[in-house]
Amino acid sequence: MDKQRDFVLRTIEERGVKFIRLWFTDVVGTLKSVAIAPAEVEGAFAEGLGFDGSAIEGLTRTFESDLLAHPDPTTFQILPWRGDVDPTARMFCDITTPDGLPAVADPRNVLKRTLAKAADRGFTFYTHPEIEFYLLKSSKYGENGPEPVDSAGYFDNVPGGTAHDFRRRSVRMLEDLGISVEFSHHEAGPGQNEIDLRYADALTTADNVMTFRTVIKEVAIEQGVYATFMPKPFSDKPGSGMHTHMSLFEGDANAFYEAGAQYQLSKTGRHFIAGLLRHAPEITAVTNQFVNSYKRLWGGGEAPSFVCWGHNNRSALIRVPLYKPNKGQSARVEYRAIDSAANPYLAYSLILAAGLKGIEEGYELPPEAEDNVWGLSDTERRALGYNALPASLDHAVSLMEDSELVAETLGEQVFNYVLRNKREEWAAYRTQVTPYELRTNLEIL
């Protein structure tokens, strides 16, 4: 770590960095930033930077408001969109109390705790997110709702189009930040795009997702458009998910791979999926944390609505993808419920905790879904044992409230804050009189 700190200090001097932004997130997943001068970095490494935690959503209580932000030197990167004018860098921070203990409500610490539990069992957790978002002409909208930048569809090539140039610029900027991109393409909705980040350990991935959102917003501003990670901005178009591929490794060996097993999926992999299936409904208030998230889950457009798994079945909640024969390292599972607006630190903590619970308890994996789950009737789904995910944020919060797994993984303070925050959101939402009600009821009632 000392070598890494020395590298940061030397790079700041050599590159003429003028500002260093210290980044962390609140419990909802909003990025927070404070800029310090180069002369203050060494002190921040040694002692942390003090701030009022009670002013940050869910981070601490008023009577224990003093917190310290400790920059993680391994996350140092120069921000490419700042250019050569006042070069600026960033580092993610770990949050502690004044006596040096990890702040219990720091989302990054929640994930580190869960990863440490996995490490105690010999596992490293790797993730690979496919992040969808919409590009709009503006954040403003009229009677017809938001206006997308194009009318293209899935994998469409639009020479000279806004989205084409946007993706190229974004990918270059992400690569400049040390974030490897695997794919980028136009998605099914008008103005909808997807950029897939390469596999990394879950903590790095979560940091990368937070950086990714910032890059996308910055490039959009630069190009005169607006990017949104809202799960469902259009009622009749697909929502934006963050399908995440994941695997556990034991040293250099993929714990999900077993040669000769069905789909080459090991017992560990099967138990992990079973844990995810059993606990999926109670973690959904975090993986899908907004009222709008449930418009995506229940609004069609290939979003998963029912708790089941399948081999290469895109209608299932959990998919076991095809991969090249004899490529055991690429054995993985894909969780399809999580959306692009989730707090990645908390969401990945709960997904990992659910999978580990399945391994610890030896949960049996139910039969796979071979049919198109969306095409089945409710009676058929009930007969096959495919329970539904929560239908609303209110329903999701009720399930989360009774979950020992979520309470234990998040810790008391984060757990209670998420519950309170989401209850307030639901209460505010349900009092709204919507355009739909006015359109369908006002004249006839």
From TrEMBL:
<comment type="similarity">
    <text>Belongs to the glutamine synthetase family.</text>
</comment>
<dbReference type="GO" id="GO:0005524">
    <property type="term" value="F:ATP binding"/>
</dbReference>
<keyword id="KW-0436">Ligase</keyword>
<dbReference type="GO" id="GO:0004356">
    <property type="term" value="F:glutamine synthetase activity"/>
</dbReference>
<dbReference type="InterPro" id="IPR036651">
    <property type="entry name" value="Gln_synt_N_sf"/>
</dbReference>
<feature type="domain" description="GS beta-grasp">
    <location>
        <begin position="15"/>
        <end position="100"/>
    </location>
</feature>
<keyword id="KW-0547">Nucleotide-binding</keyword>
<keyword id="KW-0460">Magnesium</keyword>
<feature type="domain" description="GS catalytic">
    <location>
        <begin position="107"/>
        <end position="445"/>
    </location>
</feature>
<keyword id="KW-0067">ATP-binding</keyword>
<dbReference type="InterPro" id="IPR008146">
    <property type="entry name" value="Gln_synth_cat_dom"/>
</dbReference>
<protein>
    <submittedName>
        <fullName>Glutamine synthetase</fullName>
    </submittedName>
</protein>
<dbReference type="InterPro" id="IPR027303">
    <property type="entry name" value="Gln_synth_gly_rich_site"/>
</dbReference>
<dbReference type="Pfam" id="PF03951">
    <property type="entry name" value="Gln-synt_N"/>
</dbReference>
<dbReference type="InterPro" id="IPR014746">
    <property type="entry name" value="Gln_synth/guanido_kin_cat_dom"/>
</dbReference>
<dbReference type="Pfam" id="PF00120">
    <property type="entry name" value="Gln-synt_C"/>
</dbReference>
<dbReference type="GO" id="GO:0006542">
    <property type="term" value="P:glutamine biosynthetic process"/>
</dbReference>
<keyword id="KW-0479">Metal-binding</keyword>
<dbReference type="InterPro" id="IPR008147">
    <property type="entry name" value="Gln_synt_N"/>
</dbReference>
<dbReference type="GO" id="GO:0046872">
    <property type="term" value="F:metal ion binding"/>
</dbReference>
